[in-house]
From TrEMBL:
Location of region: Disordered: 1-23
Domain ABC transporter: 32-270
GO molecular function, one term: ATP hydrolysis activity
Keywords carried by this UniProt record: ATP-binding, Nucleotide-binding
Protein name: Iron ABC transporter ATP-binding protein
Cross-referenced SMART domains: AAA (SM00382)
Organism of provenance: Pilimelia terevasa
Amino acid sequence: MPNAAAEPLVTAPAPAEPPDPPAPCAADEAAVALCGVRVTRGDAVLLEAVDWQVDPAERWVVLGPNGAGKTTLLQLAAGRMHPSGGTVTLLGERLGATDVGALRARIGLTSAADRLPDRERVHDVVLTAAWSVVGRFRERYEALDDARAAALLAQLGVGGLADRSYGTLSEGERKRVQIARALMTDPELLLLDEPAAGLDLAGRERLVERLAALAADPAAPTMVLVTHHVEEIPPGFTHALVLRGGAVVARGPLAETVTAETLSAAFALPLEVRRVGERFTAAAAG
Ligand SMILES: Nc1ncnc2c1ncn2[C@@H]1O[C@H](COP(=O)(O)OP(=O)(O)OP(=O)(O)O)[C@@H](O)[C@H]1O
C-alpha cells in the first residue's frame, strides 16, 4: 500500500516569481513624458494610448490633419489640461501630483488663442510676460527685464518694431513677437501651436528662419511645434510625432517619420514627400 504521507499525489506548485515591475514608459530626465495617455470629453475620445517622450535637447514637430488631437496634446504638454487616463510628466513633475502654477511658469506656450492688447507697445507685450500679465500697469521691472525683452525682439528679427503698438503689426510680425514673449521667462520648454498659420510665403520663411536659429541654439529650451504642413518644419528640428484620430501613427527621428508612408496614412491621401536639404515638401501623389 502506498505511503500517502511520504509521497503526496499532488505536488505543491513552486512559489510564483514576483512579476517584473512594468517598464517605465519614459526616462526620468525627459522634458515631456506621456505614458498611456487618454483624453475623453463625454463620448468623444480625443487622444488614445499615447506614449511620447521628448528629451531636453530635442526639437519636435507634431503633424496631423484637422481634428487629429494636436492641440489637445499641446495643452497636456503645457500643463493646462489633465489626462483622463495615463500619466503626463513635464520637466520631472507629474501632473496631478505637483503645483501646476509653478510648473506652467517653466513652460512657454504660443497659440492662436493668445489675446494680446492691440494698444500695448511691442516692447511691453514682451516685457509683461515677466509678471505673466498682458498689459502694463503698476508692476515694477528691472533694467535687466527691459534688456532681455529688447534682446529677444532683436533675436526674433523684430527689434525695430519695439516702439510700435502691437495692433499695427502684420500677422507674421505678431507671431515673432508672441514667440519673444513666450521666451521672456526663460522657459525650459517652448510649445508653439501652429506659429505659421495665416502667414504669407515670405512671412512663413522669415519665421522658419528664426525658429531654425533658435533650434540651433544649445541654450534654447526644448521645443515642440505643431503644424499641418511639412513646409513649416524648421531646419534643426530633430523628431516628429504624427497623429491621426487621437492615435499615434508614427514617432521618431525626422527622417524616419516624415515620409510618404506615414503622412499618407495620417492624412488619408496618397502623398509624395520630398526632402531638399533640411526642408520638406508634400503634395498629392499622382
Ligand atoms: N470639449 C470637447 N468635446 C468633444 N470633442 C472635442 C472637445 N474638444 C475637442 N474635441 C474634438 O477632439 C478632436 C481633437 O481636437 P484638437 O483641437 O486637439 O485637434 P487638432 O489636431 O489640434 O485639430 P486642428 O488641426 O483642426 O486644430 C477634434 O475632433 C475636436 O472636435
